[in-house]
Design brief:
By secondary structure, the protein is α+β, with helices and mostly antiparallel strands. Helix content is about 35%, strand content about 25%. Helix 1 runs parallel beside helix 4, helix 1 packs parallel to helix 9 and helix 10 crosses helix 11.
Length: about 425
């Protein structure tokens, strides 16, 4: 891997989609970029369902050919069972000519990281950032590299894409959990079973490369839900539980894994699809995973992806949100490096544009009766106004499908945007 330099133009913390995107763009623009990643890729990560917006960023980053060559499974849309209504969303109905994807995140993240390296970023894996010290206008990044003594590097700018570790936000004491989206996420992996096509047909897992699967979301009680995502060699099953349901979950079953399997077996449609599947034993959990963007940039430090904020994953926008933040941070930092007198101006633009996007995603995920809906509408107004017509229609459809439409519909109405929704109702599939 070579020796980490003592100084550089930009240090990127974290090799996920947000960090890799920022590193790629800045290196392509001719800046010296050092990316520090605490793990070694490929490493596990959740977030396997991608909406078609994803291609806009792979095109921009020069990574499309590598993603296509990987052969991830395509998805043409999603199916949602909520409030006893089973409905369908097709991406092509919103003008998208390219499919969504079901991806193994370890492979996708590796592709994006290597793409950054191919464009000139210097990558150092198994190197954990322990702190970002000093005046954040002139930060000192301290790290510990596997098998080596601690070290430090002095960059002109820092991009924190450290994910849930949130290195800078934790250090500043600005990582604040979202009181309106207090859920716990658990997910695990199975082999075998069956899946649904976009038309609601039931197919055996063995046909997933022949007949495209779709993402399936089903409600569990009050505001909880389960996801079902078919991958190339396994099935990703995730469960989102509100606090009240989590307490009941903890009291049922000897082990967390046993409780998880029992919950999956009882989930509408998903339980029937997975009746003959085998649990791999691989399982993860995050409690109170949604947190607010209290501060998105400070001095010469920019926060992107999950290190900046995280919203409920019900709309499959996590990876796209991270890529957007990485590209936006690279744009701002690049202009500040070329024209230091504009540093404050472009940093403020980054903060406003990124906050608008976060507010919009948050409003789409909030329960309609949440205490903070009215304030969230005001925060999201500019982001909604700046979205394309196709994006607005897709946002409205997604929010309506998962029965959380109150906030986003009110925002649309205040802006004079049509709230007509043409979701297709379907009969609930009978999975024998």
């Amino acid at each position: 891997m070579g020796k980490i330099p003592s100084s550089t133009d930009v240090v990127v913390i974290g090799g996920g989609p947000a960090g890799s995107a920022a590193a790629t763009q800045l290196a392509r623009d001719g800046f010296d970029v050092v990316l520090l990643e605490k793990a070694r890729h490929p490493r596990p990560s959740v977030g396997e369902s991608l909406i078609p917006h994803f291609w806009r960023f792979t095109d921009m980053l020069g990574a499309t050919a590598a993603v296509e060559a990987e052969g991830f499974l395509e998805k043409s849309g999603g199916l949602v069972l909520w409030d006893d209504r089973f409905r369908q969303i097709r991406f092509r109905d919103f003008g998208y000519t390219r499919p969504g994807l079901h991806v193994e995140r370890d492979r996708l993240d590796l592709i994006l990281l290597r793409n950054a390296e191919q464009h000139g970023a210097r990558i150092f894996e198994e190197t954990a950032v322990t702190s970002v010290d000093g005046d954040l206008a002139r930060p000192v990044v301290k790290y510990r590299r596997a098998g080596s003594d601690p070290g430090e590097i002095r960059p002109r700018y820092v991009v924190d894409g450290s994910g849930q570790s949130a290195v800078i936000a934790r250090a500043l004491g600005t990582r604040r959990f979202d009181p309106d989206i207090r859920f716990t996420a658990m997910w695990g992996y199975y082999t075998g079973g069956r899946y649904l096509t976009i038309d609601g047909d039931v197919e055996p897992f063995s046909r997933q490369r022949e007949i495209a699967p779709c993402t399936l979301v089903a409600a569990i009680g009050d505001w909880g839900w389960v996801w079902h995502i078919i991958l190339r060699d396994s099935v990703s099953i995730g469960v989102i539980l509100p606090p009240a349901r989590l307490r009941a979950f903890k009291s049922a079953g000897a082990t967390r894994e046993a409780r998880f399997q029992a919950l999956v077996a009882q989930a509408p449609i998903v339980g029937d699809l997975m009746r003959d599947a085998q649990f791999t034993g691989e399982m993860y959990a995050i409690r109170d995973y949604s947190y607010l963007p209290v501060r998105l940039a400070e001095g010469s430090c920019y926060l992107v992806g999950d290190a900046a904020a995280f919203v409920d994953p019900i709309n499959s926008a996590g990876v796209v949100f991270g890529l957007y933040g990485g590209v936006l941070a690279a744009w701002s930092i690049g202009r500040a490096l070329h024209s230091p007198q504009r540093a404050d101006e472009v940093r403020q633009m980054f903060c406003e544009m990124y906050a608008d996007r976060i507010a919009m995603l948050r409003l789409m995920a909030m329960p309609a009766d949440a205490a903070g809906v009215a304030a969230a509408i005001e925060e999201a107004r500019r982001g909604v106004a700046m979205s394309s017509d196709a994006e607005r229609r897709l946002m409205l459809m997604q929010a309506t499908l998962n029965a959380r439409p109150g906030g986003i519909i009110r925002a649309f109405e205040q802006l004079g945007v049509s709230t007509e929704c043409t979701a297709r109702d379907m009969p609930i599939p009978k999975v024998a």
